[in-house]
Queue: 3 jobs
Job 1
Amino acid sequence: MEAMFTVNNLWILVATCLVFIMHLGFASLEAGFVQRKNVVNILFKNSMIISIGLLTYFFIGYNLMYPGDDYAGGFIGAFGVMDWAAGAIPEVDGVVQYAAAAEGGATYTGYADFIFQAMFAATCATIVSGAVAERVKLVPFLIFATLFVAISYPITGMWHWGGGWLSEMGFYDFAGSTLVHAAGGFAALAAVILLGARRGKYRADGTVTAIPGHSMPLAAIGVFLLWFGWYGFNGGSVLSADANGVSLVFVTTSLAAAAGGVAAFFMGYILFKSYDLSMVLNGILGGLVGITAGADLMSGGEAILIGMIAGIIIPLSIVFFDKTLRLDDPVGATSVHGVCGIWGTLAVGIFGASAGMGQLVTQLIGTLSVGLFSFATSFALFSILKATMGIRVDEEEEIRGLDLGEHDMHAYSLTKEDGVFQLTDSGSTVVR
Amino acid sequence: MEAMFTVNNLWILVATCLVFIMHLGFASLEAGFVQRKNVVNILFKNSMIISIGLLTYFFIGYNLMYPGDDYAGGFIGAFGVMDWAAGAIPEVDGVVQYAAAAEGGATYTGYADFIFQAMFAATCATIVSGAVAERVKLVPFLIFATLFVAISYPITGMWHWGGGWLSEMGFYDFAGSTLVHAAGGFAALAAVILLGARRGKYRADGTVTAIPGHSMPLAAIGVFLLWFGWYGFNGGSVLSADANGVSLVFVTTSLAAAAGGVAAFFMGYILFKSYDLSMVLNGILGGLVGITAGADLMSGGEAILIGMIAGIIIPLSIVFFDKTLRLDDPVGATSVHGVCGIWGTLAVGIFGASAGMGQLVTQLIGTLSVGLFSFATSFALFSILKATMGIRVDEEEEIRGLDLGEHDMHAYSLTKEDGVFQLTDSGSTVVR
Amino acid sequence: MEAMFTVNNLWILVATCLVFIMHLGFASLEAGFVQRKNVVNILFKNSMIISIGLLTYFFIGYNLMYPGDDYAGGFIGAFGVMDWAAGAIPEVDGVVQYAAAAEGGATYTGYADFIFQAMFAATCATIVSGAVAERVKLVPFLIFATLFVAISYPITGMWHWGGGWLSEMGFYDFAGSTLVHAAGGFAALAAVILLGARRGKYRADGTVTAIPGHSMPLAAIGVFLLWFGWYGFNGGSVLSADANGVSLVFVTTSLAAAAGGVAAFFMGYILFKSYDLSMVLNGILGGLVGITAGADLMSGGEAILIGMIAGIIIPLSIVFFDKTLRLDDPVGATSVHGVCGIWGTLAVGIFGASAGMGQLVTQLIGTLSVGLFSFATSFALFSILKATMGIRVDEEEEIRGLDLGEHDMHAYSLTKEDGVFQLTDSGSTVVR
């Protein structure tokens, strides 16, 4: 009893570490995909998002998302600070009551539950930060992120994981293709629409300018770290260290990511006649987002199919948003998280143990409901911020870069060495 | 019995991995905060420190720090190589005697204990390496690091964790706000005083020149990896996988880090009227150092308060050392590890389960004793090295950079590509 | 029973995550050691190798390597897709039959076994990718990697770990000094011989040009991540969470890595009269490769000796291949993985619990057999590819860089900021 409880709890905590490092993954990926002049801004946003996310989840999000049985079938949870007393397994005469906890259905402590879920919450806002990069004003964005993580994410999260109406309806989203990724992706879409494209991206003559990221190594580091962290994101969502469950999830997660990468490689070549690293990296992420809703339900072959389809979707979706809709999303967050999030959610109705037309319809209702709610909340929040504080930096700042405009610093400072050549950024004082 | 022992032992080993990766965190952070011309030197130092640290802890540090019950209440431990025979749980007829081990109070093997503690030891010297960056001579520094890790850290560590006099006195330092961080921070302070400031830092007219780090992405990667590793640093210090204990430590550690980041954001804005990424990153670290002494004793609100205060201290302390005392510490190690280490130690007497005036006084005695001993040892070692080998590179080498001077190589080599532009570092042969 | 099974299985999965991150380690290390114009190519190759590796291991590699008892003592395994049904521990009436599994000798699920082994397989091809960097054509290399991971690696792997003829003979290779590292290193050697050196490396007058890597921070990040991942590589190879076994492996792995770094520091200084970061980094890797065959058999002192000797071998071997044999291996893979792989395998016959002349001869037979088979397969595959598609990019592409030639993109794009200075790569459109 004690040993099982301890190993289950330990896995949730190790998974928490892994989900935490996804925040470095996002920070690296987004930093790599933006221009050199906006890198500090991305790093600043992502450092703040994880910090704000953890604090707001403590003060409001956790109870809003997991309000307990009284709220079963409902639309909104409870308000209140995390109940610290309920975090630990009770002790009687210094002996921890594992048996009592297990009887109540717990496989890990309330503290572990809180911190694992808190790491998820912050992810959702991070997805948005990539899409709005290179032109959003810092403070309005942080206000948005705070409100989105504190209120919108826990409300839609409660619908399924908190025992709300989607849960009663039979909706299935194992680790959050919809609840985390589509929620984030649709919030990003609203933000991108209201913000407008980066200056120079869409020209008057109809041409679309590619604005390459400043560092592919950073982007690749980001994707590998995200993949690494996804083992905690999906594996921890088993909510125990159950040997069959977690092992299966590791296999399906790995195979879907791999299939996403390989499919995006071929699709990228077919579309662009080149071996496009960005596509492969986003294909891997698409495969990961795609398997997330049903990682515990699929066979190996199904996981590969889901990943492959995600990898095919990625380049098509990115081109569709970028060229057809002319929506400027520097990191492809709407495609990776929004579109593949929907795909993964629907895949639960098509493949695996739960497949069936009824399930497919439920999945569609669920993913669209969450997507629309996130979109609407995000649209409303950004509209208010736009009307009051403004959400976009001015033209001069966008040209000079947000690093100088918002932070008065450079991401890199290249200095003269040994008299050969001097490349000095203004603002930085070079000692010679 | 067997299962509990195995899961407890496993957590110590996983925590060991996490503490190991903090060495990459330090290496990245310090490399990011120095100038481009001194990056190889930082990476070299940090690669050597972890290597030297592990070996010396095997040969001398472990027994000096954990000498066993005979040394209870003492000031110095035993000399000798780690006792290999005592590392494993004994077997009888091929059956491992978990019951006997548990009876003896063990929750994990002696090997696991050694390697977990060895990872801590090397941390302490790494803290110094950031503070002395950009002007210290390599070989004298490595000699210092060897002696400091081999002798000074285990002596002060023994005072509390090894059952020495501070332990008997009731001093409390859960995971090392004092024993690791303040010890490292005060050693750094001694080194900075003896070394002097980087050339050009403090000008004759009284002005202070900011010398910006060369790569904010590296610095941010460093801080996220340190936060990641801190889950092992604090979580492993529970010394078992106890569900309540480790879960609580994860929550307090997370909240303190987050609060440190947010507080430093506001404080940085108040002081400098800009959104200063370095301050937020150091605020996160300050929060982590601050919670370390009492991570197992605090409630969520207390953890947030401790982190917040650390986040407020950081910019004030950095300005105080840099502008008022005119002590040049390129990465802010004295503030992050020294000052916040003291703060975290004192916080145990102010907040949480052990709060009280008596405890506060004990905490003050403990942190000052360790700080002063570390300062004195470090001052003595560096003074001897200064008088014999010299501890500072000559002026020409400092200007050219330590990468060329000490290592004859560049951290980066930018080469002409496709005829557009050529930026070649001297020394590197570019093939065209 | 349930708890032991769960904790054993959990460790295999956590170790899987750690081995996964080694792929980021290899990607970073290799990217750091190549020139700036070939970085995207390296990242692309390594992203594809992990993806291809996982998929082929699912479809063919796993059964080829672990064909079951019927193939005991054999030379080649079975063909077929991983048997999904055998992945999970069977349930009877919803109760998982841990007891039955344990009776059958299992300490973890078949899924966990598959995914842990799959991560190993991809490693082997990654070792080659560094050695062929900066001049190999992308598609032929990916074809090679696919066939090598799908067929050659599982065949030689089966000889020992799959119960084949080397296993019957008493050959010992705990975690793969031979089966993974020497296999990869000798495949790399064949590739290097057939490919030829990079243009400008060996001049007509006999001089050898050093071509420095473009980013030492990336290289150092790579080595630290590899060391981090090695705890899973070696620790997971215990194939359970056995407290004595895994703890011992952590200690020997750590001490050997540290000793490798320190020995390479001294040896590098003796040979080159400078403090060579590349040598220290490769010395650490050499120590890790060296301890891998016998990480569970050695004492601390023996681990240090094995690591030290590996650290001494590294600079000698690199110079021997580079200067004497004039074989151009940009990252030193043949020395680190090939030569130290042999050394580690032989060390099992010299040091530790299994030492003895008989064992040494067996070790020699085993390592040479695997090395030669890998070399031969790799030589044959590359020869066929050379005769049909060609394996080397043309001269113009090599000069311009593979990033532009194969991928039409740059790894970095430096743009004008604030009017100070403009460094723009051709091909990238800079928005102003």
Job 2
Amino acid sequence: MHTSTAFLTDHYELTMVDAALRSGTAHRRSVFELFARRLSGARRYGVVAGTGRLLEAIGRFRFGDAELEFLRERAIVADRTLDWLADFRFSGEIWGYPEGEVFFPGSPLVIVESSFAEGVLLETLALSILNADSAVATAASRMAHAAGGKPLAEMGSRRTGEYSAVAAARAAYVAGFSATSNLEAGRSYGIPTMGTAAHSFTLLHDSEREAFEAQVAALGTDTTLLVDTYDIEQGVRTAVEVAGTDLGAVRIDSGDLPVVVARVRQLLDELGATRTRITVTNDLDEHTVAALASSPVDSFGVGTSVVTGSGTPTMGMVYKLVAHENDEGEWVSVAKKSADKASVGGRKSVRRAFNRRGIATAELLFLGDGPGGEPEGSELAASSREVLVPLVEAGEVRAEHIGSAGIAAARERHRACVAELPPVAMSLTRGDPAIPTEYR
Amino acid sequence: MHTSTAFLTDHYELTMVDAALRSGTAHRRSVFELFARRLSGARRYGVVAGTGRLLEAIGRFRFGDAELEFLRERAIVADRTLDWLADFRFSGEIWGYPEGEVFFPGSPLVIVESSFAEGVLLETLALSILNADSAVATAASRMAHAAGGKPLAEMGSRRTGEYSAVAAARAAYVAGFSATSNLEAGRSYGIPTMGTAAHSFTLLHDSEREAFEAQVAALGTDTTLLVDTYDIEQGVRTAVEVAGTDLGAVRIDSGDLPVVVARVRQLLDELGATRTRITVTNDLDEHTVAALASSPVDSFGVGTSVVTGSGTPTMGMVYKLVAHENDEGEWVSVAKKSADKASVGGRKSVRRAFNRRGIATAELLFLGDGPGGEPEGSELAASSREVLVPLVEAGEVRAEHIGSAGIAAARERHRACVAELPPVAMSLTRGDPAIPTEYR
């Protein structure tokens, strides 16, 4: 693995820098926006995730000897471009939606203001991270709501790339999950990790009883025993016989869960294990979680569906040049003209409007001077709040957005932002965004 | 980034090792199989990818001080387990389908024979890599067939996690793509990289003409000019005026492609640019590629759909204990009993059967002594071939399966294996596997 993130990018970002350095346009001050034209999967709201990871990755976006040598060997850029890349440090400004925020079509999630060359270099990396992480977080947020306050653990490492698994654990945690099975996510991000045993552990032993005895001897009676390798009812009886009525939990990974869970709860209670919890893990998604929310399930483990964005593995975000200075130093708004991929040029600021009960009513995108200004009119100031925050100032990453502190803040922010959405946002059906995006 | 891959795994793999070391079952000789119960997405065949990456990752599966300290701090395993982990080197045998092979439901893609503890530790990592990479390769193979021999470039880095992007480029290349936009895939795996410019480059300049002039000055007339930022027809005219009739290619990224492509081809010919190629890149998948295969398109760039497995971002593979030795040294076949997740216990070998014309007719799974034996009966030997190959012997990775040589071999193998499939395999509709899996 290379420490540098500079090659996690598309070839053409470098050829554009090369050509722009040659033509003299590379240093034109430019504004790029990262946004989604629509909410993939007809979600009611999106969840921003990955921002902290992006900021950390930008700090490691360096062209060292290994990268420069590869570019030279393959003759991808000219020598003077190599010199420019060797010195590259992002020195511009980045505003954006803070991690954990909700978003809507057109929301400028990341706004990069820098020279063209510096801004264009970050395109692929920014999109990779935000598209993937936000897809997971958007699905996870729906699941967290569907679970009705019961804890959810992310257990999908095996169903996505080995490094995407770490990022997915982080994104799910930001969006309301409480733990992960992934050890690297525990180490890198401080997320609680969990897990006890798989069916293979039971099958390894000469009997289910011996497997349970081995697990309880190592992990204590507060462990979670997997009871469905053979017969579930017998499994529950053996579990309580081995661990006693202080058994922490039983896990069920197969069968018709609403029926099975009710029977297992009844059986545990009959056996005196009234405090033993039930956790279920059988290919759950937000719909099956919602269907189980009122059953006597105590916690959920979700795998495939959360790490793959529950049918929407990428958010379809794009990164577009929306304005640049010309040779006279005047700002020019720009946008691609083709009908099916139109974008709105120009610098923007964003405010979220609320009604008197504090419920969000619209995402207001103001064309003008960009983020950081004051709203015109006291009424607007009172009934809306600024959404964009500074993420990078003169090349310096704002510390509150990265590391474990950034994740904790994002998790809390997400909880607060979802609570402000109108009830329709919680619908699991496909539909329109919960609030409209209005250009002012 | 950590060099070790040992934490790209689930917490419970370690608690199982911990409990099994304590109960004395950890050292039981065991056989694990990695397989798919069905072909996700109702594909007609699957494509094995990631095997080489897995073998490389196993070589870096080490518990160093950083990993051991984390496990100690969080009290995840007992001290004697930490000692065992500190010394861990995979020392067992691995057989499997060689990378690039096609597969079917039940095909044992990776067979790990080792102590239980060594084999169970590899579960999450093996599944992460093969599930993700094979999903991409399976989609890519369909696209390569749909393109009818025209070259395909993978351009989806921005639509998947930043490290999954590198793996996706590799998997697509194994399955028949000819290039990628991803620079790290170029460096790590020797895959040809490509790309020239995005719309932002055109928008940066004061006119489309100036942008084209800048690009041609830097990249030469053999470059690919993106002609759809404003009006496509005018874009083509300007491109030929600037670059001359030796212009390498034009790229079209929007519009109703069959119609647009025909018009652009006609226009290029009228302008004398008869050798200028046309490449298209507008959210293509295997279906839109197939629809364009007979149009005057010269090459395709595919992004989102290939890196997300075209609707099937993970193959749903599982990793199951199928046999272990008991304390008497006898092999015991094992399998989970629950109705919806049954697996077939026991050691297996695999032969692919062919008809007289050399077309595959069935995947034969023999329960018995495992891979490496001789088939019973000369007729079977003549009409079928062994599918499994040794990947790791006594802990040593076979060199032909890793690195650039492994990728080149996998790519060639894939081409040969697909050519042996019956015509129905090439159908893009959902359906049954192209050949049945038969247990003998």
Job 3
Amino acid sequence: MSNATLDRVVKEIADEMIERKDRGEVATYIPELAGVDVNSFGLVVVDSSGHIAAGGDADTSFSIQSISKVFTFTLALGMIGDKLWQRVGREPSGSPFNSIVQLERERGIPRNPFINAGAIAVTDAILSGHQPRETLGEILRFMQFLSGDSSIKIDESVAASEQRTGFRNIALGNYMKSFGVIENPVELTLGVYFHQCAIAMSCRQLAMAGRFLAHSGRNPSTGFLVVPPERARRINAVMLTCGHYDGSGEFAYRVGLPGKSGVGGGILAIAPGKASIAVWSPGLDANGNSRLGRDALETLSKRMGWSIFGA
Amino acid sequence: MSNATLDRVVKEIADEMIERKDRGEVATYIPELAGVDVNSFGLVVVDSSGHIAAGGDADTSFSIQSISKVFTFTLALGMIGDKLWQRVGREPSGSPFNSIVQLERERGIPRNPFINAGAIAVTDAILSGHQPRETLGEILRFMQFLSGDSSIKIDESVAASEQRTGFRNIALGNYMKSFGVIENPVELTLGVYFHQCAIAMSCRQLAMAGRFLAHSGRNPSTGFLVVPPERARRINAVMLTCGHYDGSGEFAYRVGLPGKSGVGGGILAIAPGKASIAVWSPGLDANGNSRLGRDALETLSKRMGWSIFGA
Amino acid sequence: MSNATLDRVVKEIADEMIERKDRGEVATYIPELAGVDVNSFGLVVVDSSGHIAAGGDADTSFSIQSISKVFTFTLALGMIGDKLWQRVGREPSGSPFNSIVQLERERGIPRNPFINAGAIAVTDAILSGHQPRETLGEILRFMQFLSGDSSIKIDESVAASEQRTGFRNIALGNYMKSFGVIENPVELTLGVYFHQCAIAMSCRQLAMAGRFLAHSGRNPSTGFLVVPPERARRINAVMLTCGHYDGSGEFAYRVGLPGKSGVGGGILAIAPGKASIAVWSPGLDANGNSRLGRDALETLSKRMGWSIFGA
Amino acid sequence: MSNATLDRVVKEIADEMIERKDRGEVATYIPELAGVDVNSFGLVVVDSSGHIAAGGDADTSFSIQSISKVFTFTLALGMIGDKLWQRVGREPSGSPFNSIVQLERERGIPRNPFINAGAIAVTDAILSGHQPRETLGEILRFMQFLSGDSSIKIDESVAASEQRTGFRNIALGNYMKSFGVIENPVELTLGVYFHQCAIAMSCRQLAMAGRFLAHSGRNPSTGFLVVPPERARRINAVMLTCGHYDGSGEFAYRVGLPGKSGVGGGILAIAPGKASIAVWSPGLDANGNSRLGRDALETLSKRMGWSIFGA
């Protein structure tokens, strides 16, 4: 595969997606998301040689929302290792992203780190008695370090809106607290959670941040080992089985790559050994995943032959 | 990778597994399964060159049980294509293999083809007005064709026991029938279902049968295209997300390969582009999956570097 | 209260109900029920003196369906007493009449004798190794004895239709069998169940049959003690909390009398110490209970001051 | 029935209960409840003539907890009438008092006013834009008015403990808020809720407060009409079907009276037309209802012939 092929495929996809009319619905639960242009589309692929293929709105910042869960999950594994599994599982949930039913049946232990309850439990593990401000600083610096871009910021107005309207997440946090799964004061844990979801990044920054997952835990440009190879594989495995809520099976079936979506319309996808990919289109499908983002990744995976399930 | 490496790794694993004491519990719901020696262990790997590495009880027949679901699913996709998705989903279930709860919530449509309800719906699609005997003949000939071994048989005493005691599967079948998801008389569909689960195969036969999934739908020895490449990828994707019931996330996390387990203790696993693998150890974990089978595959995947989630 | 008052109130209600247009939907799942005239309405009240007030189609036979559950429950308590509670509970279900979800959570024990699963378990207790024909004869003779009318019969065409289409009940039976809650062969138990539901009675016959529940277990005309007083109270209690599926709270709230509905549009209601009441109107509400039947009972209870919850 | 009979029966029961060893477990989730003497027992019956029969610790105050739900429900019906039913149902829940599962299925509408979620929704309806302090004052004055005792108080230490540890109730409140069922700020509604549960009353005060429910809405001493007769009946109906969480069927079956329990070990029961009854014994059964309280009421109902389900 030459750089030229990748560049061409990315350009084709970006061109095709601009034409699409069936773009899904932009999330409307907070004004900051509702105001985003549904016609936005960005796609960036960084391959193992460091070559970057970019299409569409590659440098426009969007709210990464649940994509942040990949990175806090990575941080938590680094901080407390397998003890993390005492408070969160790693099985697909078979239910929507914000379901509380499963928590009642399984005594407050969320099914996996990528549904809201699970990510709140992971955030609580990272917070672990520190000041929210310190923890948030650490998360943000981790994103900046991974992307090689210190300009990445939290969108405070998004965070404030989430905090004002996030009743279901407050419910999830308190519910887990009632089982002792949350250790810090719920409002502190949720404060960090709402802010990490409000990190704003472009496709370029996000694709750069995901490189360690595509390359056995190592940043291929700097050679720095972010996580051991086995951990990178395992994070990819959890992304594959749980990264798209109740649409995870569909994503695996169509795209064939580990990925994590956010309600802001972004998806981070990993072609192990080959590339880190970020796509953004704010229109969502019924499961809360980016519709065109998914389609773009399906096409990319097919044209590049990148499916992990075979040539 | 040389043949010698693979041979050595398979031998090491077989030797290690013979020593293991914590072998799980053999399924006891029918006498034919309960009587199997818990100390049995077999492992066979067939790589892309056709080289076969075998360890332990590689040629002992066992009841493949739910592993048959991979092959009836393949047959059904061949017969009716994407229309199959009108009566079965492709999302992980988040519940045990024989749960009926999800069916009530989703109006009789099983979540995926690899839970019991889903496999019954798939079998019903294959039966489709034919005589059970014909359909069973077709399933059996498909297995013989894929393995290149016409000696494969149905164990009639297992089938008879299943039919006598399979009240929960009868419940699932009738429940789906009440929603119109089952089209044939329930007892005919279940007759075929119970018999396909009672197919007896050795690890060698099973690994041979799985080759098309490892090689883009093609039998690498004969060159015959069993399914188009995209379909092979998609079957692997469903195996990865749904192949181990409510332990699918765990299997992906530890082993990193698409796989399908059976309550007889067998697992078929696929390393795309590399190998088809069958393992058998009749002791089960709490999710009904072979405990040592899983461990053996985890070790194999690690030592051979075969995880689909990265090196 | 004079006979004249009761006669007048019953006549008023019958007249009012004839005018009603919003009659609900007749059950359509079998042709025999679908063919019933939605404009039918009958009401019969038998008070403690034996006085009978009848209005509308008081002598037209209809399919009593789930109202039969009251009588098989009574029979089962007579045969095995409190041992019955080992296989069925006595709590409201919080779910529709034919839900299977609760059975999975509670390991095959139905919540109460008045949902389908519970009534099947009760029927199984009565069958208890006998021939279905004998058991059915016993149920039928019990109904004839209670009503003082030996002409009561089973409608065989209704029974045959139920048996042909009752996939969900077959599912419930087999599901309970998988937990060991059903002891007889499922098809025998269901055979009895489908036939008991197909008993055809008029409002007059039904009101007569219910007298023992209104009068401390005693038939006030013959003086015969059908059940001890405490048992009559307890049957009434279960009717109050569970007699209308997921509309039981609503029925208690509006009518204030123990009652049991059937999908044929009948309701048996009991005013303890005062009267046995049967009403019939085949149009059903969303919970599967007779809409006008419920309204008629609400009016009757109010005008006669019969609510058990106070004057 | 003479006063002497009632006095004797109440005395007998109090004597019998003092001997009982199997008293259940005192609630331990807050220190104030955990510290209560498990051997406490009180019983007070006020009949229609105003005669009071008292046994045991009739004048010891205890935390009425969920019994308060009867009175806030009464207040809410008075304030907004049938509009209350837009935000709470009146069906038994079929689940524990603090279950959140049902709320997800039914989009935030609690099943009835007597489970925690329902009572929080009712409290929110009463609060309705007022200051929590005013609303609490109103609730407290209502209790004082009904009991004819202005010394009734809120136990502030109980309220403070509930507020500190009530994570599950906070979860319920926020969860309903996410569906728009709660209109006031959640913390205000919960503040009122936690305080109303912390009202401390004796059996004597509680039995006095319940008189209007036994006498068609009227206080028989003062002649004051608290609620119209139909409303009193309806409140009794909801108590009968929903007053003991997932033990409501059992209570109806055994006791045969409308009743409402609290986790402090109190039960208010109503014999319509006959008496208002309060019992207290702090040991609880598995459903969170007073074990000896229930037994005492069962005996009282039997010996006095007060069951609403027949003589």
